Amino acid sequence: MGHMGMPTVQDQHRKLHVLAGKWRGEEKIHPSPWDAKGGTAMGKLEIRVDMDGFFVVSDYVQERGGQVSYRGHGVYGYDTQKGCYTLNWFDSMGSCQWEPARGAWEGNVLTFTQQNPMGHARYIYTFPDEKHHAFRIEHSQDGKQWSTFMEGTYTRS
User: Fold this and answer.
1) Which residues of the chain fall below pLDDT 50?
2) What pLDDT was estimated at residue 4?
3) Cα-flanking dihedrals φ and ψ of residue 2, to 5°?
C-alpha cells in the first residue's frame, strides 16, 4: 500500500458484522441433480469478525441423521475497488472458487451471485431481526430460470 496510508474499516465492512455469532437452524434440501431425494438437515454456524474488522469468517457444519454430512468455511469481505461484497467459500467437497461470489445489500437482504461451469448460483441472506437470519441457495442453468437448492432459518444462541 505504501504512501496511501493504512486502510481503515468502512461502514460497508461493519455491515457484515451482523453475521457474527453462533447460529443453529433447520434446513430443507430440495431434490436436485446433487441430491436426488433432498431432505432435512441441521445447520450450525460459528461466525466471527476477523482481520481487524475487515473480514467475517464463518465455520459451518451440516448434520443429517445426526451425522456430519458437510462442512464449509466462508470468508466475507468488501471489495472497495469494485464496490461490492465478496464471499469466498471452501468446503468438504473440495470446492474452491477462483472468483469470489459478489454481492450487494438491498434493505436487510444480502445477495451474492456467482457463475461457474455448472451454471449460476445465488446465495441469499435475510436478516429480519438481530436474533434470526434466513439463508437460501438458488441454482440456474441460464441465469433466468432459478430453482431453490436449499433453505434454512437460523437462530442466534
Assistant:
1) 1
2) 67
3) 60, -125
